[in-house]
């Protein structure tokens, strides 16, 4: 099973439709590559971070290293 197929299956288990899961998997892989370059980390570490955000977000949690949104303008 390819990495893309594994991610699609995970997204489906988290409640996404097959079409949504395919889109989410593609976006996760693309963003992992971007984060790896931006942060100077491995693509695998970036993907692990993103998956942590997705799984915690799905359960209503906010990861400790996720920055809060900016407050309303004054």
Coarse morphology: globular
Q: How many separate domains?
A: 1
Strand content: under 5%
Whole-number mean pLDDT: 91
C-alpha Rg (nearest Å): 14 Å
Stretches where pLDDT falls below 50 for ≥5 residues?
Answer: none
Topology at a glance:
Layout: H1 3-13, H2 18-39, H3 43-58
Short structural summary:
By secondary structure, the protein is mainly alpha-helical. The protein is built from three helices and no strands.
What do these coordinates show?
The termini are far apart. The protein has one domain. The model has no long low-confidence stretch (mean pLDDT 91). Helices cover 66% and strands 0% of the residues. It has 74 residues and is mainly alpha-helical. It has helices at residues 3-13, 18-39, 43-58. 9% of the residues are buried.
Main traits of this protein?
single chain, 74 residues, mainly alpha, globular
